[in-house]
Amino acid sequence: GHLVYVNIAINMAAPCRSMSGAGTDPDFSATRSTTSFHKKSRSKFVSIPGTRPSVQNGQLIVSTGVTSLDYVIGGGLAVGTLLLIEEDKYDSYSRMLLKYFLAEGVVCGHSLFIASARDHPDEILQELPAPLLDDIANPKPEEGQTQGIDPEGPNSMKIAWRYQNLPKVQTALASSSRFGHYYDVSKPMDPAMRETAKCNTFFLPNELPFQSSTETSRVNIGYTKLLRSIQGVIRREGFDGASLQNKPRSILRIGVHSLGSALWGDDICCEENPHYLYSLTTFLYGLRALLRASLSVCLVTVPSHLIQNKAIMGRVTKLCDTVIGLESFRGSERETNPLYKDYHGLLHVKQIPHLNCLMCEVPDTKDLAFKLKRKQFAIEDTIVFFP
Q1: What are the angstrom distances between the C-alpha of 49 and each of 199, 252, 352?
Q2: Which of 177, 230, 224, 166 is nearest to 202 (CA)?
Q3: Considering only Cβ atoms within 10 Å of each terminal Cβ, which end of the chain, N or C, has fewer?
Q4: Cβ contact 283:220 at 8 Å
Q5: CA-to-CA distance for 109 and 32, rounded, in angstroms?
């Protein structure tokens, strides 16, 4: 029995000696053989300026340009998704969010695509707010020390007094300074900085013929031309991944202003049973397909309060990923309501996407309000405590 055990031990040690090359110390050879396994190295993450992976689902996200809005929708906008902003009645604050979105793209070095049927895209580009770039140089505050920051400082997001003891919101907004940026809406962006951005524009009056078309298509010709223009930019600039070998990766930010209005040639805002019943939804379906297959993100504003058929607005909402509604107090009874004297309107989170997960990140409360301070656009909770 001892002889058989010795033979088995010799046979087991023989491969170790042949692998080690030493052949003098079987124990040493056995030890060397246990370290022959190598840890699988992680694939290098391709870093794109102005992006970061989401902590909830790992999806690559970008900032909307409003750090408080990023926090509300779960950290930011996922690349390849569509954000719908339901305009306020006077299109004041929805237009401002569009300019924040585009200004963030300029600061991060992203490419821009601006489409409009009313104002020329160059006019929108000239109205972009100036960034407060010194917020990057400030050291990141540690947890528990955010209350020591001057609440009236230019780089701070002012929180209502009754929420000053909620460190979760404070920490989330403070930690977003390196991902998103703050902007001064009272000053336009420096033209030298604005010219560094690569911008493609689509102005509908320049794309359509002066005479009316006699075709009987059920799809709006303006939407067709816009979708082809976006597709051409994605393919030509390589955002679809076809030609990324010789150029650094970037993000295409697409901003479409007041889509669905009569200026786009659509009649959903004029009639309850419009001729172009499925024109807008068909366009959004094609647009989302382009976004899913490219390094791009899109923000679209829609005058939802003018759409007569609410079933159409329901389909539009389902075809978008994130949906935010803006309700301005201007001209309403809430403008003189003392409960809302510190705010300019309400913000409704109507839809948040489920990306790479079964459950989406929902905000702590949907009772949100926004106000335009002297320099910044801020979103806050509006819960009212009664005695």
Answers
A1: 17, 12, 24
A2: 230
A3: C
A4: yes
A5: 50
The rounded distance, in Å, linking the Cα atoms of 54 and 346 is: 26
80's enclosing H/E stretch is: none
Q: What pTM did the predictor assign?
A: 0.76
What is the identity of the amino acid at 324?
I
